[in-house]
Amino acid sequence: MKAYTYGPAPTPSQALTFHAAAPRPVLPPGSSCLLLRITHVTLNPADLVCLRLLPSWIPPLRSNPVPGMDFAGEVVEIGEGVTNPDADADSDRGLNVGDRVCGAVGLKEVFTGKGTLAEFVTIESTLVATVPTNWGGGEAAGVMGIAGQTAWAMVRRVVGEGSHDMTGMRVLVNGASGGVGTVLVQICKGFGADVVAVCSGAGEQLVKELGADEVIDYQAHAALEDAIAERPGQHPFDVIFDCVGVQALYERSPQYLKPHGQFINIVGGWSQGVVPFVRNKMRPRLLGGTPRSYSLFLLSASGDYAREVAALVEQGIVKRAVIDCEFPLEQAAEAFEKLAAGRAKGKVVIRVQSCSL
Ligand SMILES: NC(=O)c1ccc[n+]([C@@H]2O[C@H](COP(=O)([O-])OP(=O)(O)OC[C@H]3O[C@@H](n4cnc5c(N)ncnc54)[C@H](OP(=O)(O)O)[C@@H]3O)[C@@H](O)[C@H]2O)c1
């Protein structure tokens, strides 16, 4: 089969190695996995981190360091250890050979070399969702993958399990035109929130189409936090979702976030995530700490999230997947370079095999 492996290098084209005849994985006896024929992989900023940082000389990465987290494909074989959902009257997860499925593997799988950028992969059956009706593989991988799961998990943290109600809430989505933001805007709007989106002018029309009530072009202002604080006649926000990692947005938040509002950041690098997290959580208000709740959310990819996002698609809450561009498998390095440029509107897709369904 065709597949990519990777080694640590500064650029994707240096890091990725294309294999035209890599060994195809097989399901061991009793396996709880599915053998999938992958049709599409979508990329996430975390894929770039893996490419740059994870040394392939560390066992077990050495044996099979395939990159990639999001996937869409079709079931080729079902492991003997997969509980037959058809036999379970309560289950709506009847998986059969030929079914189209999607979702994401976690960093654990990528760390151990079991990424998705290959024609065939074995994936735990619990990690997959069924591709929503009339959706293509690239769309499904992008929305049921890491980005959509993150958007949904952040909203779920706010509304609580089982609730779909954000009526009367005002939310700010920073980074609204990215993979996470494009799904986040749709969920918040679909749940009844008033959505203010932050993106560049190039993404304004798109995020309005996704449901944003108001758009702030961060490039038109010297400081985003000033622009938000100085908006005339605006009510404060109940929630700020920061998909960019702007520390000043949090520090100034008492001027535009309600006292019991929530600030949720998902950007976890040292300068945008870890150090601010320690400072924002630990510094007492008496010593100048910001008097607003702060959290740094880190997704653990899950089949439950993937299936819940698929349900939101079927219910018409998430109406569309935003695809920036699509590359054939042989041009995966270009796809990673496109992602690395940081300007993609929605998802960058790699077409692994043409979809037969
Ligand atoms: N914690 C977690 O579990 C988790 C999960 C997923 C993602 N993340 C992180 O969340 C961030 C967003 O992920 P993503 O997949 O949405 O990334 P992405 O798709 O690569 O984001 C690209 C988008 O960001 C916009 N953008 C760039 N700079 C901006 C700025 N200063 N203000 C507003 N928008 C800006 C770009 O549009 P313009 O250039 O037109 O502005 C582009 O549309 C990444 O840092 C990622 O690592 C974390």
Structure description:
By secondary structure, the protein is an alpha/beta fold. The protein has 2 domains: 3-145 and 301-351, Alpha-Beta Complex (Quinone Oxidoreductase, Chain A, domain 1); 148-296, Rossmann fold (3-Layer(aba) Sandwich), CATH 3.40.50.720. It contains 12 helices and 15 strands. It has helices spanning 12-15, 45-53, 107-111, 137-144, 146-159, 179-190, 201-210, 224-229, 247-251, 270-282, 303-314, 332-340; strands at 3-6, 16-19, 33-42, 70-78, 100-104, 120-124, 128-130, 170-174, 194-199, 214-217, 237-242, 257-265, 293-296, 323-328, 347-351. Strand 9, helix 7 and strand 10 form a beta-alpha-beta unit. It is globular and about 60 Å long. Bound molecules: NADP nicotinamide-adenine-dinucleotide phosphate. Residues 44-46, 146-147, 150, 174-175, 177-181, 198-200, 202-203, 218, 243-244, 266-268, 297-299, 339, 342-345 line the site of NADP nicotinamide-adenine-dinucleotide phosphate.
